[in-house]
Each structure stands twice: as structure tokens, then as C-alpha cells.
Amino acid sequence: MNSSRTAKWLSLAQGDVITFSRQGLDLWGGVIDDRTEDGHIIWVTDEVGTRRLVHSQDEYDFAVTGNVYFRDPRAAEALTG
């Protein structure tokens, strides 16, 4: 996996609200429950409570729209660097 894609996956944190897409089409989303230390695997719970494992090589694009643990996005950024 290229370094920019790895860095993007490593930036994901527990509580991030995330939407997955392919070719510009939103497919599904949810909240990140957990991730492996190397950032290659995350677990996401969707709006009905289904928990899914996603691997960094699954070829999803994604957007993070917030974090359920931080109301102010600047607070989350301060803690995650």
C-alpha cells in the first residue's frame, strides 16, 4: 500500500464518523469502534448496529465527517496531532 494511503488510514480514530464510497458514490457509513495498531483494519458500526470489518486494501474511498467523542473538531485535532 502506498504511504499516503497508509497515512490516511492511520489517521482514523475510534469515534470517527465515516462514510465509505467508490467512484464518487456513497455506499455506507458508521462510527469507528476500533482499529489495529498498524491502521490496516478498522471495525465500523453502522446506524442499525451492524459491526463490519474493513481492511485498508478493500479499495474504499472514505470521508470522516466528525467524531462522536468530540463536539468541537479542533479538540479532536489537538489530541490526534
Description:
With 81 residues, the protein is of the alpha+beta class. It is 20% helix and 43% strand. A five-stranded antiparallel sheet has the order 4-3-2-1-5, with no helix packed on it. A hairpin with a 2-residue loop joins strand 1 and strand 2 (25-35). The radius of gyration is 12 Å and the shape is globular.
Describe the oligomeric state of these chains in a short phrase: single chain
- Overall radius of gyration: 12 Å
What portion of residues belong to β-strands? 35-45%
Order of helices and strands: HEEEEEH
The biggest sheet amounts to: 5 strands, antiparallel
Termini separation:
23 Å
Count of β-strands: 5
> Which blocks of ≥5 consecutive residues have pLDDT under 50?
none
Number of helices: 2
Helix/strand-derived class? alpha+beta
Helix content: 10-25%
Could you provide a short overview of the structure?
This protein is of the alpha+beta class and 81 residues long. It has helices at residues 3-10, 73-80; strands at 16-22, 25-35, 41-45, 51-55, 61-67.
Write the layout of secondary structure elements.
Blueprint: H1 3-10, E1 16-22, E2 25-35, E3 41-45, E4 51-55, E5 61-67, H2 73-80
Antiparallel strand pairs: 1-2, 1-5, 2-3, 3-4
Summary tags:
five-stranded antiparallel beta sheet, single chain, 81 residues, globular, alpha+beta
